[in-house]
Write a structure and sequence with these properties.
The protein is of the alpha/beta class. It has two domains: 52 residues, no CATH class; 210 residues, Rossmann fold (3-Layer(aba) Sandwich). Helix content is 29%, strand content 27%. The chain is built from six helices and ten strands. The chain is elongated. The chain starts with 16 loop residues before the first strand and ends with a helix.
Length: 281
């Protein structure tokens, strides 16, 4: 099973022990200060030096912050374009990412949740926050039978905030972002209380301009509509510029909302995801 290592740049507030720095005092190793023994300190952590320095001669104990678990959510775009087959099968990349995240969360002791959306939030695919390792098998079975169909859009993503935990979570927003930037802005705004990691899944054929010239038949992966265009040098140049501009605008939007996009072009690569977090946090 592919595993990657994610990190957060904020302190968790949960009471469940885990792998992340937290504000919760407990059985950890990060020194947080001293406390009077009469205020509920642990006698096993008496601090003799701090006690001798106390002008009121009160017994002092050391207080440590524990490491805690955080809710980890995979918010997945299940619209028709996520099932495009080009050089790679995008849906296979989605499945491998989902399985890798579920396994990585379980290994870190975090709570994992899955929310999938097409035209609506898919209640049949929803997995509430859990630490069950069996949730991985459940997710595998559900995604195998949930390959997106033609004409399914991603409107349900705008309703997904109501299905997320009520405390700050690490949310992986998995999509190809083939919808208007205004929609993406509204989506990020609806998730502003969370730490959102934009995971952009593209196939190389989506970011390259066809070669040659002549009549070309195109199909919109979201609506299923076909269109004929005459491919010529001027059109190819405008097409390439539009691709580059879209990449630039999407990066600016994501960075303005907290994190740069994690772009997966091609096959799933767990090491690349680990590198993203170690470079960004």
């Amino acid at each position: 099973m592919d595993e990657f290592h994610y990190r957060i740049g904020w302190r968790a507030r949960g009471h469940l022990p885990g792998a992340h720095r937290a504000l919760q005092a407990g059985a950890g190793f990060e020194f947080a200060g001293n406390r009077n023994l009469t205020d509920g300190g642990d006698t096993r952590r008496l601090d003799i030096r701090a006690t001798l320095r106390d002008p009121f001669e009160r017994w002092q104990v050391r207080v440590f912050n524990q490491r805690s678990a955080v809710p980890v959510v995979l918010l997945a775009d299940l619209s028709a374009s996520m099932a495009v087959r080009g050089r790679f099968d995008k849906w296979q990349t989605v499945q491998r990412f989902a399985q890798g995240l579920a396994w990585s969360a379980a290994r870190s002791g975090d709570l994992f949740s899955f929310v999938g959306c097409d035209d609506r939030v898919r209640e049949d695919l929803y997995i509430p926050p859990t630490q069950r390792k069996s949730a991985l098998l459940d997710l595998q079975q559900r995604l195998t039978a949930a390959r997106p169909h033609a004409r399914q859009r991603a409107d349900g993503l705008l309703q997904a905030a109501n299905w997320l935990p009520h405390r700050r979570s690490l949310v992986f927003l998995l999509s190809d972002f083939h919808f208007p930037l205004a929609t993406a802005e509204a989506l990020f705004d609806s998730l502003r209380m969370h730490d959102v990691v934009p995971v952009v899944v593209w196939d190389p054929v989506e970011t390259q301009v066809p070669r040659g010239r002549g009549l070309l038949r195109l199909q919109d992966s979201e609506t299923g509509r076909h269109r004929l265009v005459w491919l010529r040098p001027a059109l190819r140049e405008r097409w390439l510029h539009a691709i580059q501009q879209r990449r630039h605008d999407l990066r600016q939007l994501c960075e303005g909302r907290g994190r740069p996009p994690l772009i997966l072009e091609g096959a799933f690569d767990a090491d690349r995801i680990t590198h993203y977090f170690h470079a960004a946090v």
